[in-house]
Amino acid sequence: MGLITMNSLKKRRLAVGGFFFLTGLCFSSWASRIPDFQVKFSLSEGQLGSLLLGMPLGSLLALPLAAWAVYKLGSRAVVLWGTSFYLFFLITLGVANSGFQLALMVFVFGMMGNIMNISLNTQALGVEHDYGRSILSSFHGLWSFAGFAGAGLGALMVYLAVVPFFHYLIVFAVGLGVVLLFKGSIIREANTKESSGGGLVLKKPDAILLRLGMVGFCGMMCEGCMFDWSGVYMAKVVQPAKQWIPLGYVAFMGAMATGRFIADKLATRWGKVTVLKGSGILIFAGLLTSVMLPYFATVVTGFLLVGFGTAAVVPLTYSMAGRSSQYPPGIAIAMISTISFFGFLLGPPLIGFIAELLHLKSSFALIGIMGAMITVLVSYKNQVFALK
Questions:
Q1: What domains sit in the chain, N to C, each tagged with a CATH number?
Q2: What are the pLDDT digits (tens) for 304-315?
Q3: For residue 55, how many other CB atoms are within 10 A of its CB?
Q4: Whole-angstrom Cα distance, residue 280 to residue 52?
Q5: What is its main location (predicted)?
Q6: What whole-number distance in Å separates Cα of residue 24 and Cα of residue 135?
């Protein structure tokens, strides 16, 4: 490969990585301020759970729209326009003046998030193909690292008593800078059904992909728990000083980001199945620690373990699905992504409903069991091992 071509590829990788980082920053900016919204609108755990249902529901309903948009317009156009709308709807979260308005904006924000997810992964798969080696995990690592950075910014905003609207204006300004800086390196991909995820809802997964989808389901349920409820758990159960509340989320996101950057090396050394087994154990141990020892240091440590545990689940299941002999890689990944996403859809509201009936600690205990199920699902000697 010539020098000019390699330089071009590096610019494309940097640009796509920049947009992954930005979308992660937008999401974590919302998630880090959820406790503030709960207080502002006097929401109970059950009401907050219902409100949070809007984001994954919007994401799920956006799936066919996103695939159609990428197919018709190309992922470049969807990335650039989608980013602009994603930033705009982040600001609308900050100006909502009722719980109903916030719920509506959360729904739309969720739709835009999944549109960005599909279009950006289409771009990332193109870059990975041209590189000739696996780099997709590093993009997801950048998204997670942005979550860590966004959680840190959120903690600073809470400490400085900056309301969400002005917090989100700062993120909006950063986002516009990213778009202007990198838009020239986001290229038009070949308009094919494979690249756009065509046939996504028309395919039925085989037994191997169904098992992998269930692993992803458990992993994303745990992720959804931590994204939406870690701050609430700190505020309601641990009850530290207000400025320390976001640090549980910071610990989780920082560990998940770090874990995604090293997941490929660990999988190469010990095997993907072994890493997934360890991931489930870490999630279970982290949440069990947080439930049994609900103190600041132990909960932050527990959330750190959950972050390392969830880090590898989605990237490794995607990688294993991409080796399916029954379906093209893009279709296989899309199918397990759809199954997995229901975990993200059901987890956060389920936590709210259980917390309303019992206690928030009971909800986190249930999610810990879901983490242990990852280890159980990959421990059986079956065809999944053929995809490792």
A1: 9-184+193-387 (1.20.1250.20)
A2: 999 999 998 988
A3: 28
A4: 25
A5: membrane
A6: 18
